[in-house]
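call fold(seq) -> tokens
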Amino acid sequence: MSLPAPPAAPIEVEAIVVRLRRHGRRLLLPVAVLIATAGAAGYWVGSLPEPWMNLAAAGGAALVALVLGIGPILGWLATRVTITTRRVIVRRGFFVHHRSELPLARVREVRMRRGPVQRMFGSGDVELVVGVEAPAVLRDIPGPVAVVDALHELIGLDYARETAAGAQIGAPAG
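ret:
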């Protein structure tokens, strides 16, 4: 009984290069709202003359905290971008998950846009152009220059890997 021949090239395992979320400055306003709401609720709830007024103030404070504080924080936590050696994965959603993947082999161009506020905080939008389709946009990514450089390098490596695999398939057996 003979053993099978080893593969010609080692199988490359997909590795995670970077995991990202939107820039953390998005949390400044929700956290400020939570702090202000907690302070106002601590001052007003319990000091009003009628019990129903205290209950209404507590309910209003809870509603403001949920809608303007906790909701945006959960939204920020629920969106993440993972860049691997072969694809870009965008995951969205807290209760209902939405996952989209873009193979690096399909990416034709990588663009970066930075507004004045983004430039000040070191973030930016990264666009992945895939042909005639609308570009996939990674919004408000921290360190966009490093992300674009990494994507260019990964796309080049992916192209070289595909070219080498095509050359091996087309090579005559000998």
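The chain has four helices and seven strands.
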